[in-house]
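Key result, reporting period 2: structure in, sequence out.
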């Protein structure tokens, strides 16, 4: 039976008719304990979802849907290593990467090598071709081989190791790598080539440029071993690239790229914050894994986030969702979550190859607060669209300065309150606003939001936060009955780009391309 025809779905659809006209003002007025009814605390985190447009009945119906979707059963399949990524016949075992004493031996072996490598770089035992210490690390990777470590290095800037700078290059545009190389010293720079497949065009192009740059100074091929390490599942291709096996940190096809921060893909982060701190990141994620598996549905934070997204998307009609960290250090979180959520659940075909029958992943976007308030929040407040928001706030500042943090938090709370409750015409008039301006000063409100409070931003809480969203994505995949772990939608563009490359180099013609593409080739090549 298609999802939307199921009794649980139909019950929700009927219930939504009753909820849609209700305003958050009314929902709050009807329940003085709404905050305690619709918030959950877990291991230092607090999730307040009282500003979502739900009632107790909504939650009960959503949980019934999760039960009908056999969420527990799918969790067990994932934990048992069944190939739940069925279109690629792969297991989904990123939790095994952070399982501590329970991790598979191959995971432990790579973690031990990562630790040793970090210690050698930090202590200065690892030297460049001219015998100097490493001062700069450059992670070359894209997508899941970039966004996680890049975001986490920025997030944990307050924990950074002294005397080691970590840089990230992703774009095949030479404007990414060229200015960085211009400021680096080849004698003291170490490159991490991060690519699960080791076939990604952007990464290999940048890696070749980096190697040429290094060899221009070193003058000998053997210098590659002192300045390049690789992270990949494809040991044949890393060898072909010239990176010795001793410098390759392996991971496995059961780790999805967007779930790979916990694998060797986290090496740049481990170098940036030190091994002890990296283990704390794993510990935080592990604690969230345990919560996800053991907590009751009503207390389960990842499931709650997933159910709210499904409710807002499929029953209240939201087509986008915003993630708004009130933390400059988390400014790359929206970009990270864009890949995690949209590459996982941006799909319209279910596990049986049939149409899902309903909208799936909303378009996710966001920006660190307060910056977004001075650009796009206008549309949240008065643009007439429903845009559910996830606000994130830290109880303690990671860079405490007098006056800053309180102001940041005040803005975070002000925005979620303004979005929820708005401002009525009567309230505007009571403030003695000239009548002609009244329509412009009305805020409809009723924008749903959740606020997640972290006690502080550190490796442990970052681990909790990221695992929370990973499991949210898993739950949504189960609810929509789709495979969250493949990404066939990225393939067509890659194939076309490889056909277009020779044409843009002036080699040949391809009449099978459409008139627009051919016209653009001509414009870009002056032919
Ligand atoms: O093109 C999409 C994608 O395959 C992502 O899923 C992945 O994270 C990224 O490219 C990079 O892939 P790789 O790590 O194999 O270079």
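The corresponding designed sequence is given below.
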């Amino acid at each position: 039976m298609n999802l939307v025809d199921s009794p649980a779905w139909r019950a929700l659809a009927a219930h939504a008719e009753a909820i849609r006209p209700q305003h958050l003002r009314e929902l709050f007025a009807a329940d003085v304990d709404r905050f305690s009814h619709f918030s959950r605390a877990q291991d230092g985190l607090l999730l307040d979802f009282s500003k979502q447009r739900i009632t107790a009945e909504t939650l009960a119906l959503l949980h019934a849907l999760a039960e009908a979707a056999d969420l527990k059963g799918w969790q067990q399949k994932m934990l048992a290593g069944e190939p739940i990524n069925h279109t690629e016949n792969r297991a989904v075992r990123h939790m095994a990467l952070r399982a501590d004493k329970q991790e598979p031996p191959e995971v432990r072996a790579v973690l031990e090598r990562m630790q040793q490598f970090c210690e050698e770089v930090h202590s200065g035992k690892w030297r460049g071709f001219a015998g100097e210490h490493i001062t700069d690390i450059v992670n070359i990777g894209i997508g899941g081989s970039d966004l996680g470590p890049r975001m986490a290095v920025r997030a944990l800037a307050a924990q950074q190791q002294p005397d080691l700078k970590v840089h990230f290059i992703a774009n095949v545009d030479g404007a990414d790598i060229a200015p960085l190389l211009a400021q680096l010293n080849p004698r003291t720079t170490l490159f991490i080539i991060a690519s699960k497949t080791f076939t990604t065009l952007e990464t290999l192009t940048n890696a070749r440029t980096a190697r040429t740059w290094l060899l221009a100074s070193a003058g000998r091929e053997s210098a590659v071993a002192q300045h390049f390490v690789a992270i990949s599942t494809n040991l044949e291709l890393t060898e072909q690239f010239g990176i010795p096996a001793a410098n390759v940190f392996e991971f496995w096809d059961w780790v999805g790229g967007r779930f790979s921060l916990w694998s060797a893909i986290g090496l740049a982060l481990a170098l940036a914050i030190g091994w002890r701190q990296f283990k704390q990141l794993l510990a935080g994620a592990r604690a969230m894994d345990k919560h996800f598996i053991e907590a009751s549905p009503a207390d389960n934070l990842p499931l709650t986030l997933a159910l709210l997204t499904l409710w807002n998307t499929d029953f209240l009609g939201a087509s986008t969702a915003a993630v708004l960290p009130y933390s400059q250090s988390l400014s790359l979180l929206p970009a990270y979550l864009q890949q995690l959520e949209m590459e996982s659940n941006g799909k319209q075909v279910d596990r049986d190859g049939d149409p899902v029958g309903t909208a799936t992943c909303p378009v996710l976007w966001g920006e660190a607060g307060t910056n977004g308030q001075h650009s796009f929040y206008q549309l949240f407040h008065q643009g007439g669209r429903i845009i559910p928001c996830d606000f994130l706030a830290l109880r303690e500042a990671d860079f405490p300065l007098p006056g800053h943090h309180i102001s940041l938090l005040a803005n975070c709370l002000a925005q979620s309150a303004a979005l929820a409750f708005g401002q009525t015409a009567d309230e505007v008039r009571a403030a003695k606003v000239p009548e002609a301006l009244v329509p412009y000063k009305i805020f409809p409100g009723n924008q749903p939001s959740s606020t997640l409070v972290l006690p502080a931003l550190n490796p442990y809480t970052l681990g909790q936060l990221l695992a929370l969203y990973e499991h949210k994505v898993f739950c949504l995949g189960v609810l929509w009955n789709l495979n969250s772990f493949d990404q066939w939608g990225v393939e067509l563009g890659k194939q076309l780009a490889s056909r277009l490359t020779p044409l843009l180099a002036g080699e040949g013609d391809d009449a099978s391309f459409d008139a627009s593409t051919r016209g653009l080739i001509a414009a870009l090549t002056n032919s």
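The pocket of 6-O-phosphono-beta-D-fructofuranose is lined by residues 142-145, 195-197, 200, 203, 257-258, 343, 487, 490 (CB under 6 Å). The CA atoms of residues 67 and 458 lie 34 Å apart. This case is discussed further under Risks and Mitigation.
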